[in-house]
TrEMBL record:
GO BP terms in the entry: DNA-templated transcription initiation
SUPFAM superfamilies assigned: Sigma2 domain of RNA polymerase sigma factors, Sigma3 and sigma4 domains of RNA polymerase sigma factors
UniProt source species: Pseudomonas japonica
Domain RNA polymerase sigma factor 70 region 4 type span(s) in chain numbering: 109-161
Name used for this protein in its record: RNA polymerase sigma-70 factor, ECF subfamily
Similarity remark: Belongs to the sigma-70 factor family. ECF subfamily.
Keyword Transcription regulation on entry: yes
UniProt GO molecular function: DNA binding; sigma factor activity
Amino acid sequence: MADDLDRLFRLYHRDLQNIAYRRLGDRELAADLTQDTFVRYAGLGREQRSEGILNPRFFLMRVLGNLIIDLARGRKRQGTHSALADVQDELFDPRPGPERLFELRQQLQRLHLALGELPHNCRSALLLNRVEGLSHQAIAERLDVSPSMVSKYIMRALRHCARRLDLLED
């Protein structure tokens, strides 16, 4: 699966990112959505990939398009705020229950261990991007690698963490 994903990433990453950039006008957001597209592909079961996807390029483009649509819907929803939403916000208790807290703590421990297993550059690229919000270019300058390598580091780190959190099958 990893070889297949790496091959698809090398083949289609640039095209998908360019499509996303043309539609969004934001290079960083385009890079993030492109990575999320490959994470979604990696999250599919082996049977789903082998039986249901006849054309991986088309599938990846479709996933990217859906992510862009979801983003637009989310932005639209944030722009419209109703009185009903205000009431719902007041009534809703956002704190998780004890069972959910326990699950979240376990997941956080597994994530911490997974991050510790990563090579330095992979871990750094992921944390600098997802925690500190740095652009791929800024991370590339910090790690003294190309922005393309930063994308590969982040993909590898995301895939590893997802496996460790049991989100992906091996």
